Structures are given as structure tokens and as C-alpha cells.
Amino acid sequence: MGTVLVLADDLTGATELGGIALRFGLQVRICHNLIQTPKTDVVILNTNNRALHRGEVLKNLEDLFKDFDCQCYDFVYLKFDSALRGFIDFETSWYLKKFKRQKLLFCPINPLLKRVIQNGVYLIDGVPIHETSFKDDPEFPIQFGEIDRNLGGEWLTLPVENLNGTQGKIIIEADDFTDLKKLAKLVTPDTLFAGAGAFFTALLEDRYQSSSNQHKIIPKPDIIICGSTHDQSREWLKAQDEKVKVVWDGLDYEIVYRLIAIKRSGRIPVFAYSDVVEGSPKYLRHRMGHVISLFLETCPCNELFIEGGSTASAILKILGVDTLIPEQEILPGLVRSKVPDLNLYISMKPGSYSWGNIAF
């Protein structure tokens, strides 16, 4: 496959694919710009578009790809949310023009999470997506079961077997790994590929041998930061010990002293938003990042655990971190990365993914 460029619209999506690449023994770098492209097998650019307002996305893309040579990479993959959040229709159209391709195949399914497409409807564990907690997403509420209606724009929805002779933007109707493996064999120079982690896995499996050299350790976090409103995240939060849980209204910076006190007692603070907060998600992420910055000034840390890609991106921006080196896939979606030149590791996952059986 040669050198791979992944364009991810949020940070946990970027780290998730970094973790997948590690399974195949590939070297990975996650960056926030393409000014100094690292020499590595897989470069993952976090565009962070999902955290922006719709009117900001075009300028962000133009700035990121200014003076960029589209021929630098042998393969390009567009990483989007498997729950369809983000500006997927706009971004895919822009990338088609930028990379001068005739066709884009979009397959966001994730069979491991029981997220599939059947008869044009996106199902999560058999339930149409607009009837799940994704309907209540604060920034991208899912309104329809039909995937093309959620995306907007002009799309075809077709099974893998019916792709011959097609052009334009195509949603792949698929519900298992067999479909993904078939799709992975359809790489042509005129086609862009887009989707979630499962499709990327199939593409790598078709071209690389799996590696079993990852040294599995479960690091002990210095703090756990929960920036997601997903049902699974909130249920996990409810189950945590009240003595270590710090639930924030988004207003009072004095909350940092509570985090410091828990840390100094030898326990792991769990920091999250309350169910009722004031302010836009972007504003709240920025404020949470400042709280963490204040916390780290008093309590230097080596291991941060962060849930939620936009929250993680806001925190890293405030900390001045612009590059990550994925080193370990702890669980699917939960990836531990090193910050270059610092004794700091950051483990991240999307809010809709589980912490598994990790005992904190």
C-alpha cells in the first residue's frame, strides 16, 4: 500500500486508526498540520473539523492543505464517525475535488459495535440510529434512520456487488466483515475510500500481515477526563465512586482544587461535566482544557485518560501538544500515545466506546 495518509475529523478517530495500524506493525504519527510531514508508514492528520462550526470547515481545510502535494502519499483514507456525526457530505465532496478522484466509497459500519446498514437504514444493535442516544447528540443530533437523509447531498446506496461502472459518492450497504473484505479489494487509482475503523482494518488486512508484537500494559491514569454525553459514558460515570468523581457545571474554576485534593490523597480523580451545563460545547471544551492546564501546573502527570475527541483536542491545544505517537492499542478505540520530547502519555477513546474491564 505504500505510505498512508489518514484524514480524521476528530482526535479519538485519529488515535483509533493509529491503534489499528499498530496491529500490523506499522509506524504511526498523528499530527494537526501537514507543514512538516513526518517520515513514517502512516500519517494521520486530525483536521478537528467535527469540533468546528459549519462555516469554519472550508477555511480550515484550505489552510491545512495549502501548498500540499496530493501525490505525496500512495493511499488516502478519510476517517469519519461510525455514528455519522460531522460534516461528512461537505468534506467528502471537497476531498473528491482536492484529490481529483471520480468515485468515493463510504462505509461507516462497525460490526463489533453492531452498527450496520440494511435496506438503506443505519442500525445499531438492530435499532434505527435515530432512535438511539445519538438522537440527543448536542452538536450533531441524528434525525433519520435512512443514512442518505442523515448525510444530505447526493449519494447512491449500493451493496458491494453492484459497484461496477459507478461514479460519484456511494454509501456501501454492508453488515459484516465479509462485505468489508470484498470492498477492500476494490482499490483503484480513481477512488477515495472513507468510513470508520472497521473498513480501515479490512484495507490493512488485505495488504499487511497482522503483528503480535504489541506489549500489552494497562497504565494507571493520573486523571480520567470525561468529555462525552453519550449514554454509555454517563452510565459508566454514575458507577464511579463519589469520593473521586468531580462533576462540573462548566463555570467554577475553583473545581480544580477538588481535583488536586483527590490526586494528593493518592486516588484517581474522574472529571466530567454535569448533566446540566451552560454554554456551547466548544466553549465548554475550552474551559475544561483550562481547568486541566491549571491542574497539571500543580500536579505534574505522566498518564492522562481522556474520553471524547473534541474534548481531547481542546485540551491538547491548550497544552501545546501538536503531535502524538501511538504506542499501544489497549482496547479497540482506546489507544495510548506518547507526546514527543515529554514524559507524558495520553490514552483516548470515543465516548461511545467502552472502558472494557479496566479496573482503575
From TrEMBL:
Top-rank lineage group of the source organism: Bacteria
Occurrences of domain Four-carbon acid sugar kinase N-terminal (ranges): 5-150
Organism: Sphingobacterium lactis
Identification of the protein by name: Uncharacterized conserved protein YgbK, DUF1537 family
